[in-house]
Amino acid sequence: MEIEQIRDILKNWGVYYPSEENIQTTNKIGKSIIWIDDDEQVIANLVWYLYSATKGRLEILIQEKTTSLVDVANKIEASSAEIVLMDYQLQGYTGVEIAKELIRRGSKKQILGFSSISYGEEEFENLGINSILKNCMREKIEKMLGQIEQASK
Q: How far apart are CA 10 and CA 143, in angstroms?
């Protein structure tokens, strides 16, 4: 996703966003991420951080109520991203349900779950998926990205 596209999305939402130059991370990963979420504020808070961490190899799939679970899974599978960053509470279904569909299909993508509720984190972990709570997301994402980078060396 290009910087201009991200800026346009955030402008359309009327959300303040910092310049990408002000948000940097020491963890740069050589992998791309597709991020599935429906929360504009969470996206606005983390977009430049993840953009920086992936060296611009970030796709955002903004889930809407009218998008079926199968359509979301198809879009994830069609993506060239290697990592799926999946919100738990989406509109009409959960990220765990999408993760189950991807697993059923034999997807090779690495899935990372995140949730604002502890049982969402537990449901991801019950599937063997690493997950984090949103209230401490940035620090844990930094740690996970470091682990992913180390594992891929």
A: 26
